[in-house]
Amino acid sequence: MATGEDKPRVGVDDWVASVQDRREQRSGLAGLARRVDDVVPAWARLALFAVVAASLPLWMDRGDLFAYGIFTLVYVLLGLGLNVVVGYAGLLDLGYVALFGFGAYSYALLSSEHYGIHWPSAVSIPLVVVATALLGLLLGLPSRRLLGDYLAIVTLFFGQAFVVFVNAANPTVRGKGLTGGPNGIADIDPNDLFGYELTTRRQQYWFILAIVLLVLVGLHFLSESRTGRAWRALREDPLAAEAMSMPVNRLKLKAFALGAGIAGLTGCVFAAVLTAVTSGNFALPILITIYAIVVLGGIGSLTGVVVGAIVINVSFQFLAPENPQNNARILFYLVIVLLLMLSMRPLWRLAVVLAGTVAFGLAAHVLAEAISPSWTAGAVVEGGRFAGLISDWVIIPSGHDRFANGAYIALIVAILAVTRIRGVWRTLSLVPTVYLAAVVWETSFVEQPAVARWILFGALLVFLMTVRPQGLLGTPRVEIV
Amino acid sequence: MTLLRLRDVDTYYGEIHILQKISLEVGEGELVCLLGGNASGKSTTLKTILGLVTPRAGAVEIDGEDVSRRKTSYRIAKGLAIVPENRRLFAPMTVHENLEMGAYLRKGASSEALERVFDLFPVLKDRRRQLAGTLSGGEQQMVAMGRALMSEPKLLLMDEPSMGLAPILVERNFEIIQQVHQSGVAVLVVEQNANVSLSIADRGYVLQTGRIVLADSAKALLANEDLRKAYLGR
Fold it and tell me: Among candidates A253, A342, A322, which has minimal Cα distance to A67?
């Protein structure tokens, strides 16, 4: 409020009125992203996403389009569905992935060789969506009485029960196992557009993209609607919502059903694209990934879900076992450097640690080689220029199993020690610790891609969530005390 | 005509007996205050009235109808509204959205009710697009009251309106309560601050460890020696 006077007067507080002018202008990339996020209207964002996403098949090859394009879109859809339940209504639903599985299996049963039923998508997809929504409604019933952790446990049980049912129960229907047990169901029909079968990756990709865009538009309007606002109120303060006489239980069930419907829809396209489903596709790791997407993007934000899905899936595929090991290595060193960059102030400390680590490694390497050449005779996994540099820096003895285990334990001790030390000594002790991490990486994890992938994935998440606890596009919570 | 009547209400939290044979009433257009110290059962009384807890014995009557077994939404539809303790606004939602939530039962904000709230609290009209969490304590209190008034209640329940406010804002707050009262709404104020609430009330009840120990006109209560000692500190 411009009063013409800069000097605050006693007893006149006007900062509330001018709160918007007093918002801290964040510098750097985060600030720029925030401002762009504030300024760009929703429809422009959607249009940008649509244009960029639709052009993907024009320059990506088939395999990449499958791994990066289609899978990202599937994750976007899954994230959008979960976002309704967790983000809008604030209900901790850990059985969500089972609904995705239910949708996929239902579609598989209605459109495959398994029972010889081949219903067109125009019939099977709506049917599956409605059925999954009803199942979601059932799953949501405990939320009438249970919230938070308790609801999480009940729904988690449902999720696990689904996997067991599909795998082990496999009841015989019409002389055949309903779910195919551990083998799952194969030869699933592709989706079709009123009879026209979508068999190429491009067609499938564009089909799913169209669905994603429709769901995005629908959810945008929903979140601005009366129901959307009521969900947010419910999430913020269930007791106050109840006292305002909102139909709390009905609102919860609505969220569950809608989220489930989207999960079922995703199941339909997922099963059709993969042409086969097994229970492993709907187990806990997928649930964790979907949660990671929603939490990373910023709970409750549609743009956040899209960005989260892109970040998670792209980094995940980048680390896939069939990709070169060097990918994981590059990411590993990148994460370490980024972590140091973000946590080290002032900058000279960062420089000291980085230069110190490099020098420390070179010295240690020379020393080890001088003592016994066999200490550095181990081979670096995979060649390339980067790997060559690594082999001159990291100590890798020939036949290094015991050395690797020792280094691993030493690393844990070193990390614990670093957290206990303060000041300059911490900076100094970081040097051998970072180096040890590199040694452990090169001697243990690089040889176990499956483990390394998850560890890196976890590290990436921890890193991102430390930097932005509210998610990439989430708004920090304002607490009323 | 009696709007709200509690008849010998007994409320338990699990096995613990909280309210013991509470009886009170609020007539149409009356301003009644319910006084009590910490842990005297004030909030439980309000929760019992609203149906957030169910009494084990006794009856809650609104407009002469026994609503003891009715849901909260039913009671609110009968003309109750509450301004909760600590206001409990929906912080990341705008002032306008908060007000709208108060009229949820009426399918969106009735523009008439909205106008009335803005007439009562003109400052909220300027702040309508601002997030409720960024308002000052006094303005938040106005939003909480406005939100409650959106359902056009016959009886407004207020849970400790003076909590956490500067003395001058407490006074202003009670002026607002009086203003709301003068517009024809009955008010039940639950308070620790005996002085300021009795100064505007018609009648008062004093609650102590779950029992009503005093019930009289506000004037008489202000003159009551025991009450002065216990609550007014002089």
Answer: A322
